[in-house]
Amino acid sequence: MLSLTHVTKVFGSVIGVNDVTVELGSGAHGLLGPNGAGKTTLLGLITGQLRPTMGQVRVFGERPFSNPRVLRRIGFCPAADLLERRATPREWVRDLVKLSGFGPRAAAERADRELDRVGLGEALDRPLSTLSKGMRQRAKLAGAMAHGPDLLVLDEPFDGLDPVARHDLVSLVRH
After folding, report:
1. Cα dist from 174 to 20, 27, 113, 132, 170, whole Å
2. pTM over 0.85
3. Helix (H, G, I), strand (E, B), or coil: what is residue 102?
4. Burial of 60 (0-12, 13-18, 19+ CB in 10 A)
5. Max alpha carbon distance in the chain (Å)?
């Protein structure tokens, strides 16, 4: 599913990722390391947001950078907080699903279903700016899953969640 061969990413004089080689099949995999270790950079390379300076990244056998065929199959939950704060979770997730190629009715159905699965049913129509960080995390996770991706990439998805919500969402991601 994922293959990185001698992948390096350099930002000016800073090495974000240095000579990483790994092959990962289907299943759940975790990435552990201290702040600044390059975890988010590595996920950016896998999700096609970044192009490697050297080496080769393959997802489903293809390069992900600027590749719509691959990118359509990835669901990504970024570590960064949502910048869009005026939209409601329902509007935000629905629009993400539409960007994945679904029509308005299917997008609305998928958005509502995933928002309910992550436990945001009571906050579907509240502006994101009024939600707690944990509720915004739930909205991001729903946005990553709503289009039915083959690969789910989560960057600190449980940050800001209380222990009960964390348990519930870990179970949902496992499912």
Report:
1. 26, 9, 17, 24, 6
2. yes
3. coil
4. middle
5. 48
29-to-7, 43, 46, 53, 124 alpha-carbon distances in Å: 18, 12, 13, 24, 30
Counted residue by residue, the chain has a size of 175
Question: Looking at this protein, which amino acid is placed at residue 42?
Answer: L
pLDDT per residue of the chain (175 residues) written in tens, 0 to 9: 999 999 999 999 999 999 999 999 998 899 999 989 999 999 999 999 999 999 999 999 999 999 999 999 999 999 988 888 889 999 999 999 999 999 999 999 999 999 999 999 889 999 999 999 889 999 999 999 999 999 999 999 888 888 988 898 888 888 7
Query: CA 124 to CA 91: how far, in whole Å?
Result: 8
User: Cα-atom radius of gyration of the chain, to the nearest Å?
Assistant: 17
Task: Extract the tokens encoding 119.
Answer: 């436990």
- The amino acid occupying position 8 is T
Alpha helices per DSSP H over the chain:
39-46, 68-71, 89-99, 104-117, 133-145, 163-174
